[in-house]
Design a protein that fits this description.
The protein has 13 helices and 10 strands. With 387 residues, the chain is of the alpha/beta class. The protein folds into 2 domains: 109 residues, no CATH class; 178 residues, Nucleotidyltransferase, domain 5, CATH 3.30.420. The strands form 3 sheets. The protein has a 5-stranded mixed β-sheet, with helices on both faces. Strand 7, helix 6 and strand 8 form a beta-alpha-beta unit. The longest helix has 19 residues. The structure holds zinc ion.
């Protein structure tokens, strides 16, 4: 079988040979792309730029080993002599054996932000997602609602949408709007949603039923059980007809409990009692998601002898009995602190220009804005009436 041979040679090449060391990329010669070697020490300026490109994502990277290269996917067309685009335009791909770069070319294209997409597309299966909304204030006058989609197989926060209340009819429509935007995002990236687990939000149930015919909709057990002192009171639950209907829709496998976990992390990054601007809120959502994804993928730590490490904890719910908890490898936080210190000492800590999506106008934009002088006069004349 041609496929399995190709697969095998690729694995071999990846284990031993040259490979692309850019974040999220594992290309080798066997992948049919050109690999470019780092500029030599004789050209320190260009070499430094190449190393910085890798360091943008892997802050511990110092200099390349003899196996580490950067593949052509990280260079723009302008980095190559024109003859290649001409040959490609003529369909003469075969005549390009190996691409050579222009002498001052620098890699600029990072693949990492798309890493989830790559994995999801490679699997080529409809996704199983858990979705949940979180409003910034308890009650009805929320300014923001963020909608989070968690890929329950990969345990990755796959998408986040932020809705501001003046973008929709009323703040009670924010959660559904968040879901609609998230679903659109998946569709536009060519990803099908096979299963969606959410809480029992009536607007969302209706939307999935009517607009997402190819998606199986399940209710999260966690949410259905919530407020009912869990399954001990199952009898009571079963007596309720609405819930009886919902039980048929209970998620059979993946639960969205991890989403609850994400939301409690979010409470640290964006406490509900503090008001944030749209950009501020969005940045905090993204940071919380990065943190969550990084932690979920953190491997369990091992002892020097190679045994998995555990710690013993005494959870409240277990009333004096213990549980075992996996000890994870150290997180990125220490590395991040070191890097911040290094940047501050070297005076490199300049903010890069970050591209933010267009923020909706602030809530006060639609209110009546008086001339300040009039407002002050009005205020003062009211006080004069007082004895
Ligand atoms: Zn690459």
């Amino acid at each position: 079988m041609a496929d399995s041979i190709e697969e095998k040679s690729r694995t071999l090449a990846k284990g031993k040979g040259r490979f692309c060391c850019a974040g999220g990329c594992t290309n080798t010669n066997a992948d049919g792309v050109s690999l470019h070697s780092f500029p030599s020490e004789k050209r320190p300026d260009i070499r430094r730029k190449w190393i910085k490109f890798i360091r943008d994502e892997q802050i511990n990277f110092v200099s390349p080993t003899k196996y580490q290269f950067i593949c052509e996917r990280h260079f723009t067309k302008e980095c190559y002599p024109k003859k290649y685009s001409i040959l490609e335009a003529l369909g003469k791909h075969d005549e390009i054996k190996r691409k050579d770069l222009n002498p001052d070319a620098v890699p600029t294209i990072h693949l990492k932000p798309k890493r989830y997409l790559h994995t999801a597309r490679e699997k080529n299966l409809p996704l199983s997602l858990g979705g949940d909304g979180r409003c910034d204030t308890p009650g009805h006058s929320a300014k923001f609602c963020s909608y989070t989609m968690l890929d329950v197989n990969l345990m990755v926060v796959a998408d986040i949408q932020l809705v501001q209340s003046n973008e929709v009819k009323s703040s009670s429509h924010m959660e559904k709007e968040g879901l609609i935007r998230a679903v659109k995002e998946f569709q536009e990236n060519g990803l099908a949603i096979g299963e969606l687990v959410t809480d029992r939000h009536p607007q969302i149930t209706k939307f999935v039923r009517e607009e997402m015919p190819n998606t199986k909709h399940y209710f999260d057990v966690w949410h259905v059980a919530k407020g009912s002192k869990a399954f001990v009171e199952l009898e009571k639950i079963a007596a309720n007809t609405r819930i009886k209907k919902d039980i048929r829709k209970l998620s059979p496998g993946p639960q969205t409990a991890a989403l609850e976990g994400y939301h409690s992390i979010l409470n640290h990054f964006a406490p509900k009692m503090i008001g944030f601007s749209y950009e501020g809120m969005l940045s905090r959502l993204l940071l919380a998601a990065l943190h969550f994804n990084e932690n979920m993928q953190r491997p369990q730590a091992c002892t020097r002898e190679g045994a998995k490490r555990f710690s013993i904890i005494f959870p409240k719910a277990k009333g004096g009995h213990y549980s075992l908890k996996e000890v994870k490898e150290p997180s990125y936080v220490e590395t991040l602190k070191d890097e911040m210190t290094r940047l501050a000492i070297n005076g490199e800590g300049k903010r890069k220009d970050i591209q933010m999506p267009m923020a909706p106008p602030p809530l006060s934009a639609s209110y009546f804005h008086p001339v300040k002088e009039d407002a002050i006069n009005n205020f003062q004349s009211r006080f004069k009436l007082l004895p």
